[in-house]
Design a protein that fits this description.
- With about 160 residues, the protein is of the alpha+beta class.
- The protein is about 45% helix and about 20% strand.
- The chain has 2 domains: about 80 residues, K homology (KH) domain (GMP Synthetase, Chain A, domain 3, 2-Layer Sandwich); about 60 residues, R3H-like domain (Ribosomal Protein S8, Chain: A, domain 1), CATH 3.30.1370.50.
- Strands 1-2-3 form a 3-stranded mixed beta sheet. A 3-stranded antiparallel beta sheet has the order 4-6-5.
- Strand 5 and strand 6 form a beta hairpin.
């Protein structure tokens, strides 16, 4: 019997979580639309210790996601997009970042001055840029290097 991509992701996540001491996690995997490659969401539900697996500012979650993605790509033999969410943390964080982006844009326009956001991961910076991409009154720019990289939201000047 051939396993589906969803089965491979679920089995691999379950194996990693069991070895890490989280054997009771409920795992659901579903396909999400993406034009260029297969993309999947691995949704974990846990009663206890979810904060430990998420880590401060999602650091542990991103590490788990990275490890799972590497193993799954090796098993599947191709480029597969994969995101992991634990108890809705990623979804809530995504919505929070969009709200933060809109508030920064409003502030930048109101004060006619750039607003610098705190340092963010590459994924989080991308969410900010995408959230404000359609606004004609502001532009965004990433500055800094490494862990200190952050987004600046600037009011657009005439002709920009």
């Amino acid at each position: 019997m051939t396993q589906t991509h969803e089965d491979i992701i679920k089995d691999t996540a379950s194996e990693i979580l069991a070895h890490a001491g989280f054997p009771d996690a409920q795992i659901a995997v579903y396909s999400a639309q993406e034009e260029e490659r297969p993309f999947f969401v691995c949704d974990l539900r846990m009663e206890a210790d979810s904060q430990f697996l998420i880590g401060q500012h999602g650091v542990n979650l991103r590490a788990f996601q990275h490890l799972l993605r590497i193993i799954v790509r090796k098993k599947i033999g191709g480029d597969v997009g994969l995101t992991v969410d634990i108890n809705g943390y990623q979804k809530e964080r995504h919505e929070s970042l969009i709200q933060q982006a809109q508030e920064a844009a409003t502030q930048a326009v109101r004060e006619c001055a750039p607003v610098t956001l705190s340092s963010l991961s590459a994924y989080e910076r991308r969410v900010i840029h995408m959230a404000l991409a359609q606004r004609e009154d502001v532009c965004t720019e990433s500055i800094g290097t490494g862990e200190g990289r952050r987004v600046i939201v600037r009011p657009r000047t005439v002709g920009e």
